[in-house]
Amino acid sequence: MKKVRLILGDQLNQHHSWFNEIDDDIIYAMFEMRQETDYVKHHIQKVVAFFLAMRAFREDMEEKGHKFIYYELDANENQQDLKKNLEQVMKNYEADSWEYLLPDEYRLDEQLREMESEFSWSCQSFDTEHFYTSRDDFSDFFEGKSSFLMENFYRHMRKAEDVLMDGSQPMGGEWNYDAENRKKFPKKESVPETYEIKKDVQEIVNIIESAGVDTMGTIDASDFVWPVTRAEGEESLRFFLENLLSQFGTYQDAMTERSDFLFHSRLSFLMNSKILSPREIVEQTESYYLDHKDEIDISNVEGFIRQILGWREYMRGIYWHHMPDYGDYNFFEHNRSLPNFYWTADTQMNCMHHALRNSLENAYAHHIQRLMITGNFALLAGINPSEVDAWYLGVYIDAIEWVEMPNTRGMSQFADGGIVATKPYVSSANYINKMSDHCKDCYYDHKKKVGEKACPFNSLYWNFLAENEEKLSNNFRMGMMYNIWNRYDEEKQQDLLSQAKKYLENLNEL
User: Which of 44, 155, 475, 510 is the most buried (most CB within 10 A)?
Assistant: First the structure.
């Protein structure tokens, strides 16, 4: 009985139980497709990274004895569509059945279910064996509860997986050290080294460009630095643990023009493509900490593990619990278009310029750049959350819809009305100046709210509060700011609103 097993580009788990045995009657099918390069405009480095990772996975598994049919993007037989390609393989291989791993994006889940019903061949689906939780675990945990509080889910995960636990209590005495993870990076502190694996990718860039794939961002094809293989991923993890973990939590929210990455691990692409598993990263991190407790404060370790064991699993749960409706949520009814500088970084706002430059040059920005700079501005400017979604999904190398959408539409844009976040994550220039060194050399004055060269974040912040007072004034975390706004006299309020109106009418010129 001949069988075809489909593997998608983000299912590169070499330790999946599928590969426990070698069977010559099983062939694995993988495709580089325009279906996947074109459903949103992606960063060129993202497309390159996924194709390189897929090819490396195929090569590694073939060396272990497994049989593959692999369509490269420019292959003559490649019909650039999942259904057509798989149907072709099934017929050519004279297969009796096919199997697939459950996809992590709703659109692919729908497509594969349709293929199951339309194909005459028998089919079976399997878990990817990657996440800590199943699709349904999140819904089961929150059943009957009035809110989806991440902290409750995180503590449940810590207990269930016995991570950073001392019996039934959290190691160190606290569940969460977030309050200690908000320090600005000191001027005199040396920036850490960056781990890079440099390779020439000109050949694959040429294939992508020749095919006419429309991409964004830039790439140095002779100096591609992202790890894309299992071996490179393991080395990246070791480098993080030995060189960056000890300061990760302390400066995880900091921003500086002296470093694009600071102490961030940049392991998210490796995890989201399933080259590395969250479990092995968490286990190795905890083990490394226990062996180096005299050198590493627990706040740095807990902050990192919380992002994986807590936030990552929580975001996936939110996604599957609320899809497909989640993709249509627009709580504030925002409808402006994303400014042109999101594709060029050509703006006089220094913080925006550096966050956008980092995104376009590196296909990367850390979570505070995404949340409190580019996301903050988009929310204050009233940008349509679907446009924000599409940009974030395309520009970042680690962006796959299951993790991108709830982070963007939920956490960043508050478009879900408070399912993920307890309040909109908006700020004036004061926060940006507190957490970065961007304001000192900016064209705009972070201290000015109105007038020439007044920082746009200031008037846009108060305008956002004024426009949405009916929806937000009863939010317990927004009360203090509305008390301040209501104490302003009418003339001051109108000055701020007029300044914001001027900026909103000229977004592309900021």
Answer: 44
165 sits in which H/E element? strand 165-166
Q: How many domains does the chain have?
A: 3
Could you tell me which residues come within 8 angstroms of residue 113 by beta carbon, excluding any fewer than 6 positions away?
none
In a domain, residue 204? The reply is no
Same domain for 375 and 314: no
* CB-CB contact of 338 with 386 (8 Å): no
pLDDT of the residue at 23: 95
Q: Which residue range forms the structural domain that includes residue 98?
A: 3-126
- Could you say which DSSP state residue 118 is in? H
Find out whether 341 and 123 touch, Cβ atoms under 8 Å: no
- Calpha distance 495→501 (Å, rounded): 10
What is the value of pTM for the model shown?
A: 0.95
What distance in Å separates the CA atoms of residue 269 and residue 49, rounded to the nearest whole number? 9
Q: How far apart are CA 319 and CA 139, in angstroms?
A: 11
Residues 233, 276: contact at Cβ < 8 Å?
Answer: yes
Domain check: are 47 and 146 in the same one? Answer: no
Mean pLDDT by 10 residues, the chain (510 residues): 96 97 96 97 98 98 97 97 97 96 97 96 97 92 87 94 95 89 87 90 97 97 95 97 95 93 96 98 97 95 96 96 96 97 98 97 96 97 97 98 96 96 95 95 96 97 96 91 93 96 97
Q: What is the DSSP letter of 249?
A: T
SS3 assignment, position 43: strand
Nearest to 172 by CA among 164, 161, 180: 164
Q: Which residues face 165 on adjacent strands? A: 170
- The pLDDT score that the predictor gives to residue 188 is 87
Strand order from edge to edge, sheet including 3-6? 67-71, 26-31, 3-6, 97-101, 122-126
